[in-house]
Amino acid sequence: MNSTVMSSSRAKFVLFECRGHGPKPHFVQDRLLxxxxxxxxxxxxxxxxxxxxxxxxxxLPPPVQHPYELSNEQLRDIESCAxxxxxxxxLTYTGQLRTPVRQELAKLDNxxxxxxxxxxxxxxxxxxxxxxxxxxxxxxxxSATPKGDNLFSYxxxxxxxxxxxxxVHADNWVYPFAPQLINWSSIVVILPESRANETADVLxxxxxxxxxxxxxxxxxxxxxxxxxxxxxxxxxxxSLERLPPDRV
Length: 248
What we know:
- Helices cover 38% and strands 18% of the residues.
- By secondary structure, the chain is α/β, with parallel strands linked by helices.
């Protein structure tokens, strides 16, 4: 999908690239060759290596496949920090385990406060898998969202809809929107893939007050920019408006 948006009275042509494997390399290279600052990529699988060379490019959030609607009571618990006591699991993950990072996370499973469950989603078990993902994410302070076949994980937005703080192991992935709009490192836990085995220790070191602050911000960002397509487009427009003049 393509769209033309206005940013500080300057027209920008935005290319929305939603394929899991990102834009075709030759297309990126052609755009870089012509150095057209009026063309912006907004890609769900944007790579840091490309965005560093064309700094006005933006990440897109993974599409919400199975969102959860938090109840008013659950929202009140998050706002009051009561959720920090009610969420009895430190970290959970539901999905396939075929990548090295996911296999490292599986080794952390203690069947108590760290739960890793292997799950293949098929047409016959999608509903069951979704219920399991939601139930675990709702019990968890943090939810693992390691990259899979692509640079990102579809669970990134889904666990946010549950009010769980994503833990991301996805080297080189460009996070959604511009860093001037959202400082993801202050909202989610970002760890290099090589440090997957340290995940539990890192999470246990985060104080409850900090978890509460992060969780509130997770819910705020999800509701404003990730819950609907309109919110995502607004995030792209606001991102372009916040980029420094020499970046647009």
